[in-house]
Amino acid sequence: MTTMGATTKLSQQEILPAKDDIGALANRINLETRGHHDKVDKMMTLRFALALRDYKIYRQGLQSFYHVFASIETALYRQFEKDDQWTEMLKEVWKPEVARRERAATDLMFYYDDHKDKFLKPQMLEQIAFANHILEVTAARPYLLFAYLHVMYLALFAGGRIMRSSFAKATGMFPQKNGMSHDQIVKLGTNFFTFDVTDESLLRVVYKRDYELVTRNGLTEDQKLEIIEESKYIFDQNARCIMELEKHNMKRITQKWSYIAVTKGAYVVALLAVLLVFYYVRRIMAHLLF
């Protein structure tokens, strides 16, 4: 390992795992969950495009992920209070800089005007099920936390820069704050995608390296297979949470239009009647004249 200025660089030999290392747990997870990942990725891409136009849509998605990360980190710190092999292994991988619960909460406080009660507890069924599942399965099998440390946190490294760039260009998304520039507002609402480190790329490489070194020989094959299956569940449950939000929003829109139809129905019917009469009068006049 060499040091250049304020940034520490890793030699090529220290960058693990190699992309073609089929024995690395991280690579096995990526391979086995590719279909699950692609499904969620497609869903996220489409919905993120909508979220960039309306912060109320974005904050719903962020709230869903907040509960996931809050549950993971609650389970992780609960495990850290124990003195066993899993605590030692998890501590070797975990980096405090990647923690997301507080950063997500900071953003949500911004989007909900400091009303913590709006997001502190999950309200929707799939979100509740996901949060409870994380706490329950990791209490019984702490090594399943390795599934979450890979799937959920590495996704932030991969997408963080892209998300920040998209947010910076989304001039119509953010709530307006008096006396604040667009850049200031963006900074207040994008803590979730930032890491308090000098070099994000280095943090990602070190995180992946330590994950590989710990999981290569520290887990049995059966435990690795369980982690792979849990990783599939993570992608699928994230998809269910996204679809649940979509159904919730569609229901609200439908109810809104149903309300309009009921309360304004008489006016709509009268207007349609007038238009219909006008149409037939015009047809009759055209027939008489020509």
TrEMBL record:
<feature type="transmembrane region" description="Helical">
    <location>
        <begin position="257"/>
        <end position="281"/>
    </location>
</feature>
<dbReference type="GO" id="GO:0005783">
    <property type="term" value="C:endoplasmic reticulum"/>
</dbReference>
<dbReference type="GO" id="GO:0006788">
    <property type="term" value="P:heme oxidation"/>
</dbReference>
<keyword id="KW-0408">Iron</keyword>
<dbReference type="GO" id="GO:0006879">
    <property type="term" value="P:intracellular iron ion homeostasis"/>
</dbReference>
<feature type="binding site" description="axial binding residue">
    <location>
        <position position="37"/>
    </location>
    <ligand>
        <name>heme b</name>
    </ligand>
</feature>
<keyword id="KW-0479">Metal-binding</keyword>
<dbReference type="InterPro" id="IPR002051">
    <property type="entry name" value="Haem_Oase"/>
</dbReference>
<dbReference type="GO" id="GO:0004392">
    <property type="term" value="F:heme oxygenase (decyclizing) activity"/>
</dbReference>
<dbReference type="Pfam" id="PF01126">
    <property type="entry name" value="Heme_oxygenase"/>
</dbReference>
<dbReference type="GO" id="GO:0046872">
    <property type="term" value="F:metal ion binding"/>
</dbReference>
<keyword id="KW-0349">Heme</keyword>
<keyword id="KW-0472">Membrane</keyword>
<keyword id="KW-1133">Transmembrane helix</keyword>
<dbReference type="GO" id="GO:0006979">
    <property type="term" value="P:response to oxidative stress"/>
</dbReference>
<keyword id="KW-0812">Transmembrane</keyword>
<feature type="transmembrane region" description="Helical">
    <location>
        <begin position="143"/>
        <end position="163"/>
    </location>
</feature>
<dbReference type="InterPro" id="IPR016084">
    <property type="entry name" value="Haem_Oase-like_multi-hlx"/>
</dbReference>
<protein>
    <submittedName>
        <fullName>Heme oxygenase</fullName>
    </submittedName>
</protein>
<dbReference type="GO" id="GO:0005640">
    <property type="term" value="C:nuclear outer membrane"/>
</dbReference>
<dbReference type="GO" id="GO:0042167">
    <property type="term" value="P:heme catabolic process"/>
</dbReference>
<dbReference type="InterPro" id="IPR016053">
    <property type="entry name" value="Haem_Oase-like"/>
</dbReference>
